[in-house]
Predict the structure.
Amino acid sequence: MKILSALSTPLLLLLPIELTAQVDTAQVQKDVRAAVDFMDRRLPDQAIAAWDRVIAAIPDFTPYRYERAVCLVMAERYQDAVDVLTPIYQDTTLFDRGYQLLGNCYDYLEDTAASRRVYEAGLEAWPGSGRLHYELGAAAFLRRDVPTALQWWVKGTKVEPRFATNYYWICKGLAATPDKLWAVLYGEAFVNLETNTERTKEISSLLFTTWNKAISLGHPDDPINFCSEATLNEPSPYGPATMNFATAFEFTVATSSQPLIPEAGIRQRLSIKELVDLRVTFIRGWISAGYLKAYPNDLLSYHAKLLEDGWLDEYFWWLYSYGDIGELSDHYREKTLRYDTFLAYLGTTPGLDTSRPLCLGIGCTKP
C-alpha cells in the first residue's frame, strides 16, 4: 500500500517550550530541519540518523519517533518500523496517522489480517478519519471487492470531506466502468480539493478522457453513456413519473450536445473547447429545467455560481487543462490576461464548501 502520511513539518518546527528548555534548542531545530529535508529528498538513511540525534535530545516526544518510523518505511525496513510504532501508534498526538502507518507496515509485510485489525481499531478511536476509511477501501479494492471499496471511500468523503484521496480513488475506481458519472463528479471535486500536484494532472487528464469515452455523438443508438442500466433504473425520489438524478444528467448532456453532432459518422473526440461549450450549455439547461433545486449537487451548484460570476468557461479550461496541453497553451496565448485573472479569482474566492459533507450524487436526496 502506498504511504499517505504527510510530514507534519510545522508541528515539528514549533516545539513547546517545556520540551526544549533543558536541551540545545538551536541544535535540535537544526537536526529537525535536516531530517525533514532528507525526507523530502527521499534519503531515508540520512534522515534516520538526523532523527536519532533529535530523539537522543528529546526522547519522550512521540511525533519524532513517528517520523523516524516513516523513514524506516521509506527505507523498506518494515519490521523495524513496526517495532518503533507498536508502543506509540495509539498516542493521541499522532491522531489517526499512527494507526495508518502501522497498518501500512503490515500491508507491506503482507499481513493483511493484522493491517485490517489496526485500521478498524483506528476507526474506533478516530471515526472521522478519512485516511482510515481510505485504507479499508484500498484493502477491499485489492481483494477485487470494488463495491465495498467504493462504500468505504464514499463514507470517507462524508466523515472527512477535506481529505482528497477518497475522491481520487472513487474517480480512478469508476472511470473504466459503466458508471462514469460518479467518476467525473468525484474526480472534479478532487481537482478542486488538491491542486498543483502530480495527482491533479493525472485526474485532469482522466476527466477529459472519461467525458470523451462517455460521449459518442452521432451514434444512432446510444450516444451518451455515463451510467449503467442499473443506475438509470434506480427509483426517483420524486416518484415513478420523474427522472432520477442520473437519467436527468444523461438527458441534459444529450440535449446540450446537439450542436456538436456531426452530419455523418460518429465524432470520436471532443476538443477542450467543444467540451467546455457543452458543459456551459449543460449547466444553463440544468438551471432552466429546475434541476439545480430538484437534484441537490454541490458541484453543479458551484458551476451555477461560476456562471453567475462570469468564470465558468475559464474554470472548465482549467479543469481539463491536462487533457490536451497543446490546446490549452494555444488558449492561454490568446487569452493570457483573462486566464491569469481567473486563476487569481480561483485562489481568493471560496469554492466547494468542505466544512460539511459534499453532495455529489451518491446518497444525496431531495431537499
